[in-house]
Amino acid sequence: MNNAPIALITGASRGIGAAIALKLAAEGFRLALVARNTVDLQAVADQTGLSAADCLCLVADLQQAAEIEKAAALCLEHFGRVDVLVNNAGIGHFGPIQNLTLAQLQAQLQLHVVAGWILSKAVLPQMLAQGNGLLVNILSDAARRPFAGGTAYCASKFAQDGMFRSLQDELKDSCIKISNIYPGLVNTYFNNKVPTAPQPHKLEAHEVAAVVWEVIGNGGSPAERHISRSH
Ligand SMILES: NC(=O)c1ccc[n+]([C@@H]2O[C@H](COP(=O)([O-])OP(=O)(O)OC[C@H]3O[C@@H](n4cnc5c(N)ncnc54)[C@H](OP(=O)(O)O)[C@@H]3O)[C@@H](O)[C@H]2O)c1
Fold it and tell me: What spacing in Å lies between the alpha carbon of 129 and ligand 1's midpoint?
């Protein structure tokens, strides 16, 4: 019987989520990977070296509540447990408020707040039943730092921060730990970029993944971790 722990990771098709998937696979986890792009998700699964049974690809659009719930249910049905949920999937639309659309604001709120809320709510009963669980949430330094051009992104990240810090309070006497990670700029595909050669002011995705692994190794401590090269 395979006793390797299970991590459910959103936004695992590229960037920070893919780096976390590769790190956790290397450290002995079995995985459920969530994103929309089937080809990219499968490529990450292949890179982990895990079998299809040990690395589930869950193609889901986290803008859709029903698809979020289905992804969580499929993970729990397949593995029977989940030890770590990494709420990572994210998008960023920046610019003056006049140039942003309501749909862009809503998409960020949906992905950063609503998807994290639904997924966390979906896995908590199983974590409580099994007697352990860790939520690792990839927020942003923009969750604490308002800036011009950030009316939509900062709104969603501040809200995500408030939600997970409230959940920390709510679960403080339980077997479930929550660790919130606040990266500065990271060299990924975020905001329609393409990863470049390493830059002095940007973290690399694998550095964020290393911090996530450190937090997991410390049983969910610290409760919040800020990492940055840009400030
Ligand atoms: N890069 C930075 O500078 C930076 C800094 C601080 C915080 N962050 C945060 O880090 C997290 C990861 O960002 P990243 O830098 O790794 O960006 P990225 O390279 O663009 O990756 C974003 C991931 O989110 C997934 N995603 C986007 N929309 C989705 C949807 N509707 N349903 C399911 N999955 C969706 C994408 O997969 P699909 O397109 O395949 O669906 C992709 O796997 C985000 O929460 C971001 O806010 C990033």
Answer: 30
- Residue 117 reports pLDDT greater than 80: yes
Q: Which residues line the pocket of ligand 1, CB cutoff 6 A?
A: 11-17, 35-37, 40, 61-63, 88-92, 111, 138, 140, 183, 185-186, 188-190
Q: Which atom of ligand 1 is the closest one to the Cα of 89? A: 24
Indicate whether 212 pLDDT > 80: yes
Number of Cβ within 10 Å of residue 177's Cβ equals: 22
Q: Where do the domains of the chain lie?
A: 6-227
Confidence bin at 1 (pLDDT 50/70/90):
low
Q: Could you tell me which residues come within 8 angstroms of residue 161 by beta carbon, excluding any fewer than 6 positions away?
A: 139, 143, 144, 180
Cβ contact 167:220 at 8 Å: no
Residue 110 CA: which ligand 1 atom is closest? 31
pTM, to two decimals: 0.98
Bridge partner residues of 177 (DSSP): 134
Q: Which residue among 20, 91, 154, 211 is best mutated to probe the pocket of ligand 1, counting the most ligand atoms within 8 A of its Cβ? A: 91
pLDDT at 151 over 60: yes
Tokens of 29: 């986890």
Catalytic site positions: 153
Number of H helices, E strands in the chain: 7, 9
CATH number given to 6-227: 3.40.50.720
